[in-house]
Amino acid sequence: MRRPRDVEQLRGVARPQTAALGAAGGVVLGCATNLVALLLGLETLSLSVAVLCGLCRGARSLEAAFKFFVLAAISLAT
Hints:
single chain, 3 helices, mainly alpha
């Protein structure tokens, strides 16, 4: 199945922005002084990693991103 051209352009734009969001999450994680800031940084970092995994081509990358997101959500809830 061939993807439309606009999806490919969106991938090119979304990668640097998502990486910058992940870097911001890492900074928040590193500078955290309380538990709320620690969890916020960790979730921001893990969400950006899941999105970056999903931006790769193929169905396996989407499946991996979904599983990563669900695992992160469950681990935060418990």
